[in-house]
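Students often ask why we bother predicting the structure of a whole assembly rather than each chain alone. The short answer is interfaces. A chain on its own may look different once its partners are present, and contacts between molecules only exist in the joint model. In this exercise we take two input lines together and write out one structure for the complete complex. Read the inputs first and try to guess which parts will touch.
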Amino acid sequence: MPRVLRTLKLLTVFAGFSLVWLCVRFPYETGHAAKKLLGLSPEVDPLTLHLKGEFVESNLGTAIDPDGSVTVRLIAQRYDFVPRCLLVPARTTVHFRITSADAVHRFSIDGTDDAVEVVPGHISELRAQFATPGEYKTPCHEFCGAGHYNMLSRIIVVRRNLFPGLKPDERTNCALP
Amino acid sequence: MPYLKLLLAIRGVRNLAALCVLGSPLAVYGIYALNTANPQPPLRIPSNVAWTDETIAEASHGNAVRGFLIADRCARCHGREGFSASAAIPNLAGLDRLAIWKQLNDFRDDKRRSKIMNVVANELETKDYADLAAYYSMLPTYPDAGDTRAFPEPPPSTQTGAGARLVAFGDGTRGIPPCQVCHGPLGHKLGAPSLVAQNSTYIQEQLEDFAKGDRSNDINMPMRSIASSLTEEERQALAAYYGSGLGNLSGSAPEASR
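Now the answer. The structure tokens for the assembled complex follow.
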């Protein structure tokens, strides 16, 4: 086979793969960005968070995903973040997924630059890493109503090697007895 | 030579078979271990009620006259005018219609436990709930001064100071919001009862149950997390505050201030 033909064949294969990748990936990426920018097509129903979907009560808090990464699911509502006390490991990327049940809130972590606006109907995402174990306060940073100034929850960061040893029901949150 | 090849092939197949037999328990254990490392928590739903427009419409368009007739069977415990003679049974007079409607639904669905109310809510028809809510929510919230019926004794007012502070200001350092931003008079939240004249023993029992998780029908768990952040003394102080009727004196109840 002449060299030109072989190159052409390779190029075709490459173009085919790229096209497939674009078809799969592009609508997702653009769709996600557009939703955030325009506030269109809500991703979750703020009124039925407790009935179905990933924000049901038993699914809130810290979860270890199969690939070992850490995801935290939170609801912001007047006037607390649910659950109001979290346990996460240090020196690990923590992936927050937050939605609001009523008003616009802002989840912020004291002493860091990490903060994200939480809008009803949408899932806000935030990636944060905690360098040292300790307690971090997470106040609401967007006026949300009469109880806004008392809207404060906390994150307790434990040493990375201690975290997997905790029982599953201990590490999801530290809010309830 | 062909025979030798065949022999080798058979041995290969046999090895493969042995690997499958010996390896399968390992594979099964691997899958099991993966699943137990990331167990899916059992689904927990606090209440089947969601405050959609249809739900609110259904709950607020009750017939108060029909509710008055049905309320005949509630009168023995909750009082004909919605004031209970026992401190452990809640007053229903002036309670928000959405709050009454939601609690009846939760009693029927066993989302909130009560030996008596689970039975009563099942005996009633679902459309009775809105009628009862309409009737009780329009009753005046405070008995008038000339009323000679027996009411539960309010707790001594010496305990109410700490309660009043929590109701008015909450505790910012612990992230406890003021009670009045959801339970009135400063603010209001869908489904949250306005607490003006409520019986102290009842308030205390509910706070304890929320704190222990025995009562868990609050949507997105605000009451469970707040009650468990309070100390035992603070829960008592709040019960004393609301039981003393102080909520009425601040001009919170429209009937009392008029």
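Check your guess against this: The first strand of chain A starts at residue 61 and ends at 64.
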